[in-house]
Amino acid sequence: MEITQSLGFDSKIKAERYSDKLDCNQRNDNIVLLPSTGFSSSDERFDHFIKRDGLTFAGVHLIIDLWGASRINDIEHIEIALKQCVKEAGATLLNIHLHHFAPNGGVSGVAVLAESHISVHTWPECKYAAFDIFMCGEAQPYKSVDVLKMAFKPDIINIGDHRRGIVA
């Protein structure tokens, strides 16, 4: 399995774009995520933000692309994987809503968390799944990555990491 990972708010992420005909083999160049700007971290409104590596920020947002993934048309399997992601990350599940599309079998949905959310969109015809994991507080979103690897067994996984709501 090839793994492309970019860590830090200013890192480059491999981006995937498609033509109107959804050419599953067409890929393009990299994009760059830039840090947010905000208010002073000494402001008491930000006392619940994460303080790490000399930064104060609202939470970590992981953008995860799975290529060559299996079982991404199986809505029950996806729900189990989402619940396991929440458990491993130490987050609090509030609700899960998933929708199964016909005729291609794609699934879109969200696990709403007390700490934010995990969203999923799948394209089984391309063996591609997109996961967004945004968590704040003490939750550990990186622990969800191993769950996704085990659940969907992708050939390639691209991971982007963005710190949301950085304050000075």
UniProtKB/TrEMBL annotation:
Q: Which catalytic residues are annotated?
A: 116 (schiff-base intermediate with substrate), 121 (proton acceptor), 136 (proton donor)
Which pathway is recorded for this entry? Amine and polyamine biosynthesis; S-adenosylmethioninamine biosynthesis; S-adenosylmethioninamine from S-adenosyl-L-methionine: step 1/1
List the cofactors.
pyruvate
Q: Name one GO biological process term.
A: spermidine biosynthetic process
Question: Which keywords accompany this UniProt record?
Answer: Autocatalytic cleavage, Decarboxylase, Lyase, Polyamine biosynthesis, Pyruvate, S-adenosyl-L-methionine, Schiff base, Spermidine biosynthesis, Zymogen
Sites bearing Pyruvic acid (Ser), chain numbering: 116
Q: Which domain of life is it from?
A: Bacteria
Q: Which reaction does it catalyse?
A: S-adenosyl-L-methionine + H(+) = S-adenosyl 3-(methylsulfanyl)propylamine + CO2
Locate the transmembrane regions by residue number: none
Cellular-component GO terms for this entry: cytosol
Gene Ontology molecular-function annotations: adenosylmethionine decarboxylase activity
List the EC numbers from the record: 4.1.1.50
Query: Which free-text remark accompanies the cofactor?
Result: Binds 1 pyruvoyl group covalently per subunit.
* Pfam name, any one: AdoMet_dc
Keyword Lyase recorded: yes
Q: Gene3D superfamilies this protein is in? A: 3.30.160.750, S-adenosylmethionine decarboxylase domain (3.30.360.110)
InterPro entries found in the cross-reference section: AdoMetDC_C, AdoMetDC_fam_prok, AdoMetDC_N, S-AdoMet_deCO2ase_core, S-AdoMet_deCOase_pro-enz
Q: Say if the entry is tagged with keyword RNA-binding.
A: no
Site feature Cleavage (non-hydrolytic), where: 115-116
Q: How does it assemble?
A: Heterotetramer of two alpha and two beta chains arranged as a dimer of alpha/beta heterodimers.
- UniProt xrefs under NCBIfam families: SAM_DCase_Bsu
* PANTHER family membership: S-ADENOSYLMETHIONINE DECARBOXYLASE PROENZYME (PTHR33866:SF2)
Report the sequence similarity comment from the record.
Answer: Belongs to the prokaryotic AdoMetDC family. Type 1 subfamily.
The task this protein performs is described as:
Catalyzes the decarboxylation of S-adenosylmethionine to S-adenosylmethioninamine (dcAdoMet), the propylamine donor required for the synthesis of the polyamines spermine and spermidine from the diamine putrescine.
Record protein name field: S-adenosylmethionine decarboxylase proenzyme
Record organism: Candidatus Endolissoclinum faulkneri L2
Lineage per the UniProt record: Bacteria, Pseudomonadati, Pseudomonadota, Alphaproteobacteria, Rhodospirillales
